[in-house]
Amino acid sequence: MADSALSSQRIHDVPDQLTTADGIPLKRKLAISMRRARWRAFLMTAPLVLFMLVSFVLPIGQMLTRSVHNDSFSKALPNFSVALRDWDQKASADGLPDEALFKLLAEDMAVARKERTIGRAATRINYDHSGTRSLFMGAARKAKNFEAPYKETFLELKPKWSNVEMWAAMKRVASDNTTGFYLAAVDRTYDANNDIVEQDEVRQIYVKLFWRTLYLSGVITVLCFLLAYPVAYLLSVLPLAKSNLLMILVLLPFWTSLLVRTTAWIALLQTEGIVNDVLVWLGIISDDGRVQMIYNQMGTIIAMTHILLPFMVLPLYSVMKTIPPSYMRAARSLGANQFTAFVKVYFPQTIPGIAAGTLLVFILAIGYYITPALVGGQDGQLISNIIAFHMQKSLNWSLAAALGSILLAGVLILYWLYNKLIGIDNLKFG
Amino acid sequence: MKMKLLLSAAAALAITAGSASAKDLTVVSWGGAYTKSQVEAYHKPWQAKTGKTITSEDYNGGIAEIKAQVEANNVTWDIIDVELSDAVRACDEGLIEPIDPSILPAGADGTAAADDFLPGTLHECAVANIVWSTIFAYDSSKIANGPKTIGDFFDTAKFPGKRGLRKNPKANLEMALMADGVPAADVYKVLGTPEGVNRAFAKLDTIKGDVVWWEAGAQPPQLLADGEVAMTTAYNGRIFNAVAGEGKPFEIVWDGQVWDLDLWVIPKGSKNKEAALDFLKFSTSTKQLAAQASWISYGPARKSSGALVGKFHNKDIDMVPQMPTNAANLKNATQNNFEFWADNQDELNERFNAWLAG
User: Is pLDDT at B247 greater than 60 in this prediction?
Assistant: First the structure.
């Protein structure tokens, strides 16, 4: 009783605010030091943040921009583009612009030709309306000598200048922001009335490749799982000396260069390769009946399954390692047979590992590039190979960006679905 | 502040990348036997003459790298060997330097450069060095009574076995049409129509299941040597060098060849433009072009070099009959039409890719 009176007395002695030795209120001092700690923590991560910004966020942002923004036409022919945007094709009787627009075109072309930017405009319009590149270049070469009436001069030069569809395409590319590349990426295009229609059947490719990429990635993930599960189990139950040896066998290919492993598969599987040689030598197949195992989908599946296998084994192993063997023994002693014990007790505990392994393998497979490029032949190519084609060969970077963005969105959707179904918290990499 | 930091970091990166490649001259070409012929005929004598060093790099054609370097303002290549259609496109897009043909030296016989170069080999941004060709070849030790015409290449009943083709519609569509009976002179007229394109793809369809696709010029001789294919299209010089240099029993069929030019171009913003121009003038002189023809069977772009073409550098093989431009080889031949491809490559590439993936 006396004790409590004393303590309450002490509380009343305390001034309104606690202060430190230098007279600053404790609360503020604490806040200051907390802020300092936060800044220190931030500065420690700053290099990483900066690195992520420069190497990841900016390029992806730029890519997303490129897929909807392409100003190569309006940059080369600025005045003409501005005027063309306001032009109403449906209002004109013949579907062609008037004399004033043709005059602007001739003037802009002459300048663009001198500054060597006309090629970019011609390339841009050629994406939307194939076969117009030489029409543009041909007119641009002569544009500086063009005189009124301009419209007639153009039409006389090449009758194709009166192509209504081409003018509709030109009006579309004159605006810098476009959904055209996304349409192209899903095998759609505009017709002369600016309606969205399916691309010509013989040119449809991207949708098919997206599905094929998903399908092959799925097959590879399932194969990896079937192969990795027993190996991971063995790793987790073997005595340390033996499991270490097995672990090295799993990791050795993991540490070997991707290209080396891929070319090793070529040496093994090609028609004049080791596997076929052995089969012929054993008399299983004849010399003329050598099996085509590479440069097709089979080659892509075999090589990618092998390369991605460690990404499945390692998370599985790390989860299995933590499951006490006594659980299985308990299940058996309570009357479950080996199979039931496995299904009811062991397997559910490995799900976080399976979740991590399948997610890792599937997402890596979806974006895989070099292996299908080398061993995929014609029907084992994935969407990433066509993206590379547009980056490196056709130089249609906007289309490549649109395809890449769709792939990115697809991965994010899958991740979201995954989170809904299994829960990202359940993920365990080790 | 953050933006500034970012910019300076980027600038620092660019500087390190730039200084690492500060060489006298970087010459980029197609690798393998072809680059070797250039090293022997152009690089070595030029280095001996000027005392400068050349860094030789390989690539697989196309203008993607040039575009990337010019747009990033970090040009590390100084002079590049490109195909005509790529030279035209790069020039139109302002990626390469204009080259005034009047700086080129006159031919050894005194003819002015403008007259000495074959028609169409001087471009406003590029100077041709050679005429090369896409032909098809087979291993004569494996096929006794070998194919004679381009039609035989597509005839897997008469000549069973795999076929090698470049993974690119260019030259394949032309050859398919010639094999289907279109006269060489009409190939691009037919290919300019939708029916013509269908016809070419229909012809390719007949061998689609038997095709092994190649991308780099060094691959087809290897495919033939390994027995992976019975016959393959290839660049004629690569096959010739496998025969002359390595004694392979390969045979070239000139019927249905598609010939083209290779040209030197200088990327815009090259750090060694003077040296590049000097190298260009030197390498396309009469003597050097003729010297290259003693290392690989590509035709020199100068008329005056033609007279100097002799034998292979270390063997008693006459080079003249090996040239794509030799009259006997031109009986049924098409010149690659760069304008057609500049116009139609977007559409035809897409169709070709769709056809491949289907």
Answer: yes
3-class DSSP state for residue A161? helix
Question: Does the distance separating the beta carbons of A116 and B92 come in below 8 Å?
Answer: yes
pTM, two decimal places: 0.82
CA distance B221 to B164: 10
List the beta bridge partners of residue B264: B81, B127
- Compute the average pLDDT of residues A236-247: 91
Q: Do B351 and A202 touch (CB under 8 A)?
A: yes
pLDDT at residue number B5: 46
Q: Which of B6, B92, B228 sits opposite A118 (nearest CB)?
A: B92
Burial class of B147 by CB neighbour count within 10 A (0 to 12, 13 to 18, 19+):
buried
Q: What pLDDT, on the 0 to 100 scale, is given for residue A11?
A: 53
- The residue-averaged pLDDT of A173-195 equals 90
Yes or no: say if A395 and B63 are a contact pair by the CB < 8 Å rule. Answer: yes
Phi and psi at A399, nearest 5°, equal -65, -40
The reply to whether residue A381 touches residue B358, judged by beta carbons under 8 angstroms, is: no
pLDDT in tens, A106-136: 999 999 998 889 999 999 999 988 888 888 9
Number of DSSP helices (H) and strands (E) in chain B, helices first: 16, 11
Residue B265, beta-bridge partner list = B80
- Chain A residue closest to B194 (CA)? A202
Q: Judged by CB atoms within 8 Å, which residues 390-429 of A form the interface with B?
A: 391-396
Place of tokens 């004694």: B247
Considering only CB atoms, which chain B residues are within 8 Å of A272?
226-228
